[in-house]
Amino acid sequence: MKEEICNKIRQHFSAMSIYKDPASTGSLFAGRNLPAFVKDFLLKRYLNIQTGEVDKMALTQFLDKVIPAKQGSVKDRLQSGEEVTLLARFVVYIDIVKNERQFAIPDYGIKQREGLIPEYVYSRNSGEFVEGEKWGIIKLCLLPDADGKKNHIQMVDYKPFKPYSSVDISYLAEARHYFTTLEWIDVLLSAMEYDPDGFTSLTKKIEFLTRLLIFIEPRLNVIELAPKGTGKSYVFGNLSKYGWLVSGGKVTRAKLFFDKTKQQNGIIKNHDFTVFDEIQTIVFQEPAEIQAALKSYLESGKTTIDNNEFSSECGLMLMGNIPLSAQHIPISPFYFTNLPENFRESALLDRFHCFIEGWILPRVDKSMIFKGWTINVEYFSEILHTMRTQNTYGLLFDQLVRFEEKADVRDSNAVKRIATAYMKLLFPHWQRIEDINEEEFKMYCLDPAVYRRGIVKEQCSNIDPEFKSRMPYVEVVQTGFSGNKLF
């Protein structure tokens, strides 16, 4: 990436910028399984903003204190009577029967039945301890149960992991004015920790950035089929604490939606997006029930579980591998045959909005890891999360676009969701109709949206001819421009 763009980042995102040098700082985190947003938080804490140098000794001492490399050492220290402070990922469970808030810390072997959140910690952090995965600085100690027969691990203090309690969208919009669209695309790639120079075409860059659409748009449902080594798992598992990555194993309706036995919501309830990685290796228990619940949820964001209505704004993504020819294109034109049998139903697949052609993307190697000044991941993930509730872009889309009268509702909804997500990601400074460059809107937002929904339609038609592959006619109300096509 050009030095000029890095300098612009430092100038217009000064407090949110960070110098990335994986070769220099990577060894600091060896043996500690930390996502990128936590690493950036720690690096920034010990970074000299003028020189880009990290105080490695101070950072190492802090890591040794709050992120011990040895899993078993935490329980040993608690057993010996020590209070232990951790910067950790933990999972909250609410036991309605016992009227308890329990927690587990999988990375340190602390199970749900062993961890307890007392009332005074909960009351000081109202709203933080909803069910699901959390990151924070927690202080733990070992205490006897009320009956004195057993012990439990008690959370005696908690500080949420929120380096940015809120982000200013107007600040982002103002800063975006100082970058051209091509420059901004490179900024986004570098914020994802990838070197823009590792992508040989604009089409490949856009294909890669399309993975971020479920971060930024509520209830956007996506399918990506790609060869191994294109960075799928890293993007969805490391860039945001608001997503959940399911990698293999057994999946139940209770785990996804609602567990009636525990009276506990599933992972879809409390996350921005849920990604099924390596979809071919996931075993869906009670597949008919999961399929029925998914159909309803993918359509409306709601489903009924044992007479209880479940709703969420979480987007779903299916990621799987696809065999390619020597020309690096799919061997078969029937893409969805690579999905598990339970997902090869056209009525279910038609509820997905967007398709990503992962075979277009380059295989990730060390040369593609970004080095230089960019936006730190924690700020970047908060921006994506906050933009989900910004309705300005959807209203602008409604003013700009007109569908043919008999357009299928699923098609028009899908195109709007995809195009709106691109607007948020690439053009956050478009706040009024006068701000919009019509040529760029068509080139970067509308045309890709129609194209990506069109792939889903075509593949559903391959499964069931009753589903027509033709996309509805879509036009921009304000015409009179032309532009180069990406697709």
Automatic annotation (TrEMBL):
Superkingdom: Bacteria
UniProt cross-references to InterPro entries, sorted A to Z: BrxL-like, BrxL_N
Ranges of residues in domain BREX system Lon protease-like BrxL N-terminal: 11-140
Protein name (database record): BREX system Lon protease-like BrxL N-terminal domain-containing protein
Organism this protein belongs to: Prevotella histicola F0411
